[in-house]
Amino acid sequence: MKDLIQNILNGNRRALARMLTMVENEREGYQQALAALFPHTGHAWVIGITGAPGTGKSSLVNALAQKYRQQDKTVGILAVDPTSPFTGGAILGDRIRMRDLYSDPGVFIRSMATRGSLGGLSRATRDAIRVMDAGGFDVILVETVGAGQSEVDIVRTAQTTIVVEAPGLGDDIQAIKAGILEIADILVVNKADRVGAKNTVQALKMMLEIGHPAARTQPVLHHGELMQIENHTSINPTPLWIPPIIQTITMDFTGIDALIQAIENHRAYIEQNHLSAEIERERIRIELYERLQNVLMTRLMNGLTQQQIEAVVERVRTRELEPSQAVMMLIDMHNTEGML
Amino acid sequence: MSKEIMSEKIRILIAKPGLDGHDRGAKVIARALRDAGFEVIYTGLRQTAEMIAASALQEDVDVVGLSILSGAHMALVPHIREVMNQNDLQDVPIILGGIIPEEDKPALSEYGVKGVFGPGTSMQEIIDTITKIVNR
Ligand SMILES: Nc1nc2c(ncn2[C@@H]2O[C@H](COP(=O)(O)OP(=O)(O)OP(=O)(O)O)[C@@H](O)[C@H]2O)c(=O)[nH]1
Ligand SMILES: [Mg+2]
Hints:
Distance between the termini of chain B: 8 Å
Helix content of chain A: 40-55%
CATH topology of the largest domain in chain A: Rossmann fold
Shape of chain A: globular
Order of helices and strands of chain A: HHHEHEEEHEHEHHEHEEEHHHH
Strand order of the largest sheet of chain A: 4-2-5-1-6-7-10
Low-confidence stretches of chain A: 217-221, 231-236
Mean pLDDT of chain A: 87
CATH superfamily of chain B: Cobalamin-binding domain
Bound molecules: guanosine-5'-triphosphate, magnesium ion
Mean pLDDT of chain B: 90
Number of strands of chain A: 10
Oligomer: heterodimer
Number of helices of chain A: 13
Structural class of chain B: alpha/beta
Distance between the termini of chain A: 32 Å
């Protein structure tokens, strides 16, 4: 394992690929390996790219990565696609749009299936980002599933979140999903070569005006619950970040420089206002909370037999126990084993 | 490479090297493999040996599946194998779909081709073969 870690830190691509598999499959020893890599993370700027299917996320990644390469920055890419809930299989097809990046040793592309996660990323994506970060990439681009809803994971994972819209997806304002203003640091209207792009830009501008500034909120953890609070209402007001709207055409790189500049501006905004530490603290709180939830749940379930559970199921079915009583009872059964 | 845990997903690259035609057949295979529970990395048409090797390495696939309908397999496969080996992928097997004459098969197995599937092959046979190769 020492070799594996050293090889990853030295930029060995096969080792990196192996480690990503290890993390995805939660193989024996993966946690120790992650722990060994963790001190070497924190260098990369992580950019999330989300938006409805077919808006051009992969094409944008392809264009952005090429521009970053021209600046001599190395680029790691994680592209997440959905796992079929029926078969557990997946077709991971984002590479098709990233053909220009294959021969470049400064780019590493990895496709991931959601494997049952619903928030637009897979359970292992956060760890995969850390592995790539330790691998020394300057920029990490994360393409989400693009279910167009509940893309909350990416906001809590990326430092800059780009929401991609495209014209022709429907009826302007109605087609634009509620909630994107809350998650977007940058709004991209891709396929600006198409008629209707102006309308999409217009619709987004209107939404921003209605929504700005008080409606810009941030999720925070409060008594273990995620809640929305208003941004920076306190005595020391930080200037608000208003998401810029950038039009792009991926085929000829129109707008890609402007997009990179917008990402730089966003990064500068975070750094100049000393927001990094607080943002990171907040994410760590959320991550620990989620992980704690997972571990406790697993422990609880491991401490109960199938028969015990079935017995309680039956008592609920026969109206002897109300479900919340049943839950307390399961926890009590567990507690007597002294595991919680 | 054999799997350490049976329940791990099998990851397979499906690529179409060479300059010929369409990828309808490859897409059908990709969907069938997804339905069999595999994770299929689909890269599409006109893949060079370098592209195939780069994808196989970065995606850490268990198998590389090539669809070659042009009859150029004896030209394409040795070169792909060579580039894969240069990328430290000696241990990654290849499977082949296409019209492959019986007499070419021994030579192909020299290049790590572990399965050859002609037009009539049942999907089940393909799935079983891949599963066996991976869990070997
Ligand atoms: N006209 C036009 N088409 C584009 C542009 N960018 C991408 N496309 C096309 O839009 C389609 C979808 O592009 P992708 O990059 O695969 O979109 P995606 O959002 O990654 O799609 P999923 O991953 O399936 O959700 C492809 O046919 C692209 O060629 C653009 O700027 N203009
Ligand atoms: Mg895509």
